[in-house]
Specification:
Length: 183
């Protein structure tokens, strides 16, 4: 058998009729209306898909930021006690010579730079109103009611999130007693 006697038969592609598609018995106006309706449906579907994708991108970005924050906050949370102890040690450096003081100051500047780089800031305390979101009360003492009169341990924030609340003493609304002077 040769190919010339039996040429291959190729099927002619036919559109697959679906519900609501134009048929041979429809009028041109109804076909146009049907196509406009389908176009409107597809346009609406595309808009919804774009909105869903935009929301998904926003969600993924929020998750990424949150994961990064947890990573940084975990490490910073471990560094903060070292910073606090370093500051306590610096308060007692009077006996050191100038060379050692300069070395310790340089190390402290590096630590402070690291905190600043990651947007870690100290929580203000003395003279500020007590806020349970930022402060942990250790006790009360003489001073203006619910105003912080002393700080035991610094508190820190990263951005708008508290890493470590400040440990403070708040005023109880009484005035401090003045010790009598011997004359």
């Amino acid at each position: 058998m040769s190919d010339e006697t039996n040429p291959p038969i190729e099927p002619t592609p036919q559109p697959i009729p679906t519900e609501g598609t134009p048929t041979d018995s429809s009028t041109p106006d109804s076909d146009i209306q049907l196509l406009k309706s389908q176009l409107d449906q597809m346009t609406e579907t595309c808009k919804r898909t774009l909105a869903d994708f935009s929301n998904y991108k926003r969600f993924v970005e929020d998750q990424r930021k949150q994961a990064a924050w947890f990573g940084v906050s975990g490490i910073m949370g471990e560094i903060l006690p070292i910073v606090d102890n370093f500051e306590r040690a610096m308060a007692h450096m009077a006996d050191l010579d100038a060379v050692h003081k300069e070395g310790i100051d340089a190390i402290y500047r590096q630590l402070a730079g690291l905190l600043e780089k990651h947007n870690v800031k100290k929580i203000e305390t003395i003279g500020k109103p007590f806020n349970p979101l930022f402060h942990e009360v250790l006790s009360q003492g003489p001073g203006p009611l619910d105003t912080i009169v002393e700080e035991f341990e610094k508190g820190y924030m990263i951005g708008e999130q508290v890493l470590k609340p400040a440990k403070v003493i708040v005023g109880n609304g009484t005035t401090p007693e003045v010790a009598p002077q011997n004359t």
